[in-house]
Amino acid sequence: MEETISLQDIFKTVKKRLGLIALTTILAITIAGIVSFLILTPIYQVSSQILVNQENTETATVSNQDIQANLQLINTYSVIIKSPAILNQVIEQLDLEINAAQLSDQITVATAQNSQVVNLTVQDSDPALAVEIANTITEVFEEDIREIMNVNNVTILTPAVFTDELSPVEPNPLLNMAIAGVIGLMIGVGIAFLLEYLDTSLKNEQDIEDVLNLPVLGLISPIPDKEMVTVDVPTRRRRG
Question: Residue ranges of the Polysaccharide chain length determinant N-terminal domain (predicted)?
Fold first, then answer.
């Protein structure tokens, strides 16, 4: 019985403060929309691919052992791509006003399992610059890896391409607004229950019993105004 009453109290509190809850939810969604559309800087993402293949030899056949050796080198190549030895040259060629560590944060290097293709992803607020960074990194890496590792098994498979249809990957206004809506709803419900907890006024007979520790013997039901009967009481005239 107590659980049912507690559940009823929850619904009553939510219903009572429904306007407050709706206001905080709408306010949170509005703020998230304004921040996403007007304040946050759009971030664009481009990708290029390089292929780690066999070294140029007189034989045209490629053994499974060669492929496995190339796969083992990919992890090493992924580290070299993001190393200052490569990135500092990219910064110098493109005249970027950032250091190698900052540029490394904009770069992601990934490979599919058992694949000889390395995907290089670059994010930047300028899509054209992101394309230049991605292509310059792959070009510098392809050239320098010959001296660094004394190999010639890297080929640019797919360079990054700039298109007018390129859309930002961040921020995601709809996702941000959805998350803000959930947070605003939770905040609104929390404030509603906090106000209800701070309200110490007596609302029903149960509150009276809890405060006075006395049983309620009877209740006086309110009488609607339309059901009230007025009685005219005649006044006595004073004798002169």
Answer: 3-94
Same domain, 64 and 132: yes
Domain carrying residue 87: 42-158
- Band of the pLDDT at 3, cuts 50, 70, 90? very low
Amino acid at 194: L
Q: Where on the phi/psi map is residue 114: left (φ > 0), alpha (ψ -120 to 50), or beta?
A: left
Q: What is the rounded CA–CA span in Å between residue 120 and residue 108? A: 6
Tens digit of each residue's pLDDT (9 = 90 or more) over 75-110: 888 899 999 999 999 999 999 999 999 999 999 999
- Give Dmax (Cα) for the chain: 144
53 plus 136 within the same structural domain: yes
| Structural tokens at position 240 | 């002169």
204 occurs within a structural domain: no
CATH number of the domain within which 117 lies: 3.30.70.1130
Here the tokens at position 185 are 């709803």
pTM (2 d.p.): 0.69
What is the DSSP secondary structure assignment for residue 43, as one 8-state letter?
A: B
Helix (H) or strand (E) holding 49: strand 44-52
Who wins on pLDDT, 10 or 51? Answer: 51
